[in-house]
Amino acid sequence: MGDLTEKMVRGLLHDAGEIEVFLSPRGREKACALSREFSCHVMPDNQAVVDAADIVLIGVRPKQLVELAQQVTLRRDQKLISLASGVSVIELRRLFDIQCCVRAILSYAAEINRATVAIFPADPEAQTLLRSLGNLVVLASETEFELATVSACMNGWFYFLLHDLQHWLVEKGLPPERARALVTSSMEDCAAYARHQDSLSIRDLGQSIATPGTFTAQGLEMLELHQANAAWNAACEVVFDALLTQSGRGDPEAH
Ligand SMILES: NC(=O)c1ccc[n+]([C@@H]2O[C@H](COP(=O)([O-])OP(=O)(O)OC[C@H]3O[C@@H](n4cnc5c(N)ncnc54)[C@H](OP(=O)(O)O)[C@@H]3O)[C@@H](O)[C@H]2O)c1
């Protein structure tokens, strides 16, 4: 039971209705803590988890998948949902010798049922289960899914952006809790309004705020001078390249 899986299981146990959860004994501390808090079972080994489950959820690191696959035999009718980044459906089918493999990616907000949950391919049963964790986005291809993985990394980067902005406000004299309330609420309201105004492009929305002569426009000019967008693009590119390389589809000509 790793960090992400723990949050996912917490979210599922809060909100997925009648489900029974069987946990691997690995990551023992977290698994035991969960089983004390909720009614879920820590099984003696991974095969016992597989034998008890209809859907097998895998949250190990990509490098740990081969070892895990050697420890278990899945039934032909079972479904596997993998969180392992950069490991394709074909590779999962090969490793676990079953047909029905679904990839999913989500954020820590799964714990409070507010995560962005991306899955590939479409699968009604997996969608029903994971929908309880937040906003479900079904991707149409494996490459789209790798792009969704980059987007999941953006979620992590947003915390650092929020931290930097909060830190600036605090340095200038705002108490930390009020600075935190302002930056987190501001990010939330931006996302909510962009959702509400979905007929406008996000750039147009920004431009409708940063009109000439405004303070927002003045700050934006400075961000552009420092090529803030180039730094974000570079971070996205490096992760996308790494994902394509790991999944064996790395082709510098492809993007
Ligand atoms: N963290 C994120 O925000 C995030 C975001 C997107 C995707 N992901 C993907 O999600 C997956 C999990 O990430 P994480 O951050 O939760 O990883 P993590 O905290 O490192 O957890 C990995 C867990 O896998 C367990 N494990 C290793 N080998 C195992 C085996 N053979 N059988 C059962 N359990 C085994 C480990 O148990 P031990 O402690 O006993 O070794 C550990 O608890 C990764 O593939 C990652 O690519 C993570």
TrEMBL record:
GO biological process, one term: L-proline biosynthetic process
Residue span, Pyrroline-5-carboxylate reductase catalytic N-terminal domain: 2-85
UniProt domain Pyrroline-5-carboxylate reductase dimerisation: residue ranges: 149-237
SUPFAM superfamilies: 6-phosphogluconate dehydrogenase C-terminal domain-like (SSF48179), NAD(P)-binding Rossmann-fold domains (SSF51735)
UniProt-listed Enzyme Commission number(s): 1.5.1.2
Entry keyword set: Oxidoreductase
GO molecular function, one term: pyrroline-5-carboxylate reductase activity
Family: Belongs to the pyrroline-5-carboxylate reductase family.
Protein name: Pyrroline-5-carboxylate reductase
